[in-house]
């Protein structure tokens, strides 16, 4: 999935540092800002016990599926004759909340999705909600389907990367038919877990071997930049969201991250590091980040010895919406916790 700050290209770099640590097989690796779950999935494959957390619902659906779930759910109670994903893909689209607000249906100006794809999203999301409400699917099955829908949307959304704005002309990928696929679930024989919480509230509740921190490092809030995925994951069934502006943003006041607010970020990190119950803390940060590197090192060193690793990284520049790449420095700080 295209996601700002996604670590897919840095997995080997992170692995090289983590695998030097003297921890036992199956040690607990806690990815507490999990986003796409790319890091957690990597360490799950390597045989670690992975805990995964993000405070956004769509990211939680990915963690429930990619990290916590070991086998493709059976969806027995639905009693379908065909495969669940085929069944959803074959449903006939129907205009609903998404079509009316986020596709050019009836002259609407917003074009996050083609009308056809938006109608499919509406009908699929409504079916999932109805199945959940009538207890025909379990919570694991529910999140499995939400995750599949989120992944499918990200492949046909008419955006450059984030959802803060839609493209004024149609990207080729947005004109393809939306197609759900089965999730990449696998069993690594460990008790992997997914959480949806504020990292600072959760961190002190779990004793882990390695705590991996990949907090937002700039002022762009994930809740607004990925509001569309969050809207689909949370649904619009209990209360229709009051959407506003050109983008059709939904309110996100209660989902703002302190890590994206310059006057709060350093204090939030200090609080997190202070409360952590981990043998090692590994922090990813970028040299464009709002916490200056010396401040960051000072915060980490309140708990022990810090080692620094640096790598140049070509990053996709969504901010310019021109698809250009810029070179940034990705820092990894390894803290061996003493105090
Ligand atoms: C840089 S991204 C992580 C990217 C991830 N490592 C990946 O590879 O996809 C930061 C994530 O932290 C989440 N986040 C921000 N503030 C948070 C908080 N206070 N508690 C929990 N999650 C938070 C965001 O929703 C976002 O998904």
CATH fold type of the largest domain: Rossmann fold
Question: What Rg, in angstroms, do the CA atoms define?
Answer: 20 Å
Q: Biggest sheet, strands in spatial order?
A: 3-2-1-4-5-7-6
Mean pLDDT: 95
Bound molecules: S-adenosylmethionine
Spans of at least 5 consecutive residues whose pLDDT stays below 50 are none
Shape: globular
Strand fraction: 15-25%
- Counting structural domains, the number is 2
In CATH terms, the superfamily of the largest domain is: Vaccinia Virus protein VP39
SS elements, strand count: 7
Structural class: alpha/beta
Structure commentary:
The chain has 12 helices and 7 strands. It is α/β, with parallel strands linked by helices. It folds into 2 domains: 1-71 and 190-220 and 262-339, Rossmann fold; 74-184 and 222-255, no CATH class. The chain has a 7-stranded mixed sheet with strand order 3-2-1-4-5-7-6, with helices on both faces. Helix 6 runs antiparallel to helix 7. The protein is globular, with a radius of gyration of 20 Å. 42% of the residues are buried. The mean pLDDT is 95. The structure holds S-adenosylmethionine. S-adenosylmethionine (SAM) binds at residues 3, 5-7, 33-36, 38-39, 54-56, 59, 198-199, 214-216, 222, 257, 259.
How are the SSEs ordered, and which strands pair?
Layout (H helix, E strand, L loop, with lengths): L10 H8 L9 E4 L6 H8 L3 E5 L3 H12 L15 H7 L6 H6 L12 H19 L5 H18 L36 E3 L3 H4 L4 E7 L8 H4 L1 H8 L27 H14 L1 E10 L6 H8 L3 E13 L8 E13 L2
Parallel strand pairs: 1-2, 1-4, 2-3, 4-5
Antiparallel strand pairs: 5-7, 6-7
Bound molecules: S-adenosylmethionine.
């Amino acid at each position: 999935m295209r996601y700002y700050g996604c670590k897919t290209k840095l997995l080997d770099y992170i692995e090289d540092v983590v695998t030097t640590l003297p921890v036992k097989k199956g040690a607990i690796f806690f990815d507490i800002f999990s986003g796409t779950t790319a890091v957690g999935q990597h360490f799950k494959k390597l045989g670690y016990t992975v805990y995964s957390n993000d405070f956004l619902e769509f990211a939680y659906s990915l963690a429930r599926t990619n990290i916590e779930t070991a086998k493709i759910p059976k969806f027995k109670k639905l009693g379908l004759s065909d495969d669940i994903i085929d069944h959803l893909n074959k449903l006939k689209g129907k205009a609903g909340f998404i079509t009316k607000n986020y596709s050019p249906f009836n002259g609407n100006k917003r074009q996050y999705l083609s009308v056809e794809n938006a109608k499919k999203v509406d009908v699929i999301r409504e079916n999932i909600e109805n199945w959940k409400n009538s207890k025909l699917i379990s919570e694991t099955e529910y999140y499995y389907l939400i995750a599949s829908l989120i992944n499918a949307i990200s492949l046909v959304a008419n955006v450059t990367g984030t959802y803060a704005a839609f493209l004024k002309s149609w990207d080729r990928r947005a004109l393809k038919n939306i197609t759900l696929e089965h999730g990449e679930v696998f069993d690594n024989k460990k008790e992997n877990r997914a959480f949806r919480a504020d990292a600072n509230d959760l961190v002190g509740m779990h004793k882990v071997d390695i705590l991996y921190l990949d907090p937002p490092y700039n002022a762009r809030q994930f809740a607004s930049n990925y509001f569309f995925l969050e809207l689909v994951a949370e649904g619009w069934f209990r209360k229709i969201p009051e959407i506003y502006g050109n983008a059709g943003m939904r309110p996100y006041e209660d989902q703002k991250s302190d890590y994206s607010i310059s006057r709060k970020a350093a204090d939030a990190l200090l609080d997190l590091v202070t409360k952590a119950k981990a043998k090692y803390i590994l922090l990813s940060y970028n040299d464009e980040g709002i916490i200056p590197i010396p401040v960051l090192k000072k915060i980490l060193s309140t708990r022990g010895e810090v080692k620094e690793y640096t790598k140049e990284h070509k990053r996709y520049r969504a901010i310019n919406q021109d698809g250009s790449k810029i070179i940034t420095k990705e820092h990894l700080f390894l803290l061996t916790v003493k105090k």
